[in-house]
Write a structure and sequence with these properties.
Elements lengths: L4 E4 H13 L6 E7 L2 E8 L12 E3 H13 L3 E9 L8 H5 L4 E6 L7 E8 L2 E5 L1 E4 L34 H17 L19 E3 L1
Parallel strand pairs: 1-3, 1-9, 5-6
Antiparallel strand pairs: 2-3, 2-5, 4-10, 6-7, 7-8
Helix pairs in contact: 1-4
């Protein structure tokens, strides 16, 4: 794991857009891919029943759905991603207790400078691992509407972007600033929200 994970820019943009449009609540889902490259994203509803601004909840059924989804598309399951709207990009004790081997956390504490970090949970200790955003070049993307949870936005996925070369730091800063402004200026909360439900059918729930 010395090289850590890589994530395509489209999938990073999707997670960023989902996170900003769900503020002030936490949002998230599951990530998959191959060769430590994140090429699949499965957003899910925040299943927590109470204060979703500080907690992200998911169930055993959500985990099973994620494993089936990635296996169907010949991808490895990597783990959970979720936002910390008011906190730093570091696992909380609830995150550690969730049993996930890898956590991918997007801090929106400063929306102009979001921080996306990855951690390996080893012996109940979070170990930071590299997480690189890579170009979409060489990847083709599709929006799989097989389930209501398979699409991040109710009106379709975020635009796919590709670059012929790595961006300079100045280009990266300008691009990110413009992307955040574009998200803020769009119609708010296009991500479908789920009404609270009791999980009577399952004796398992996890908070993160």
């Amino acid at each position: 794991m010395a090289d850590g994970f890589r994530i395509t820019r489209k999938h990073y943009n999707t997670i960023l857009e989902q996170g900003i449009k769900n503020l002030p609540e936490e949002s998230g889902g599951f990530l998959g891919g191959y060769d430590q490259t994140i090429t699949g994203i499965l957003p899910i509803f925040n299943q927590y029943l109470y204060n979703r601004t500080d907690t992200f909840g998911f169930t055993a059924e959500d985990i099973q759905l994620a494993h089936r989804f990635f296996a169907k598309h010949h991808l490895s399951y990597y783990g959970l991603y979720h936002t910390h709207p008011k906190g730093i990009a570091y696992p909380s004790q609830a995150d550690i207790n969730s049993g996930q081997l890898y956590h991918f956390i997007l801090s929106l504490q400063n929306q102009d400078y979001p921080v996306f970090s990855a951690f390996h949970i080893h012996r109940r200790q979070p170990i930071p691992i590299p997480l690189h955003i890579i170009s979409d070049k060489g990847f083709s993307s599709v929006n799989l509407n097989e389930t209501p949870q398979a699409s991040v936005l109710s009106n379709g996925p975020a635009p796919s972007l590709a670059f012929d070369r790595p961006m300079t730091p100045e280009e990266e800063k300008s691009f990110l600033s413009q992307k955040i402004q574009d998200i803020k200026n769009e119609t708010p909360l296009q991500y479908p929200l789920l009404k609270p439900k009791d999980n009577q059918q399952s004796g398992f729930s996890t908070l993160a």
